[in-house]
Amino acid sequence: MENRALIVVDVQNDFCQGGALAVPDGDAVAPVINALLPRFPLVVATQDWHPPGHASFASSHPGRKPLEVIDLDGIQQVLWPDHCVLGTAGADFHPELEREYFRAIIRKGMDPRVDSYSGFRDNRDDHPTGMAALLRELGATAVVVVGLATDYCVGATARDALGLGFAAEVWLPACRAVGAPSGHTERALAGLRELGVILRDNIPA
Ligand code: VGL
Ligand code: ZN
Fold it and tell me: Which CATH number fits domain 4-51+82-200: 3.90.1860.10, 3.40.50.850, 3.40.50.300, 2.60.130.10?
């Protein structure tokens, strides 16, 4: 399947053990993803990449705490601990991840006023990242999405891939979820399945 691309979402130190927004068992995806990299003719990685004082940080909203939900200019926004601040060690890829395979690195979340879960666009759809054009120009018609976190950036990336005309699969053994607020992972997966994203519980041979 020459037309299939792997999208490695946000496998960054802040989402791994000891990181600012550690996803439970997040580190476990690195070796699983490394084993996948040589199997795809095209691999693209995303990096969550926020300026200091980003609107998704609870610290940017006096009196607010992480995981509280606010209305941010008409969009429901979960507030997060400060994470993936551009250029910091927390924003760097997990040290075990074999980044030599990445044909391109797409950064997202740089507009201080709006969050960006999808690798294709921000949550307000103001800024495309260029990933769709990149994938299309390189001939991809289908994507496999892996990384962190299943219920936020992986899910949003798979949803948008499908909406932009790519066949989309999520390979769950190479993903881990935030799982907050309670039940979020289950709702996210059900939503993806309903859209037509293929969710695989096992890595295909
Ligand atoms: C993510 C929350 C905030 C993710 C990024 O990569 O799933 N989640 N920023
Ligand atoms: Zn973020």
Answer: 3.40.50.850
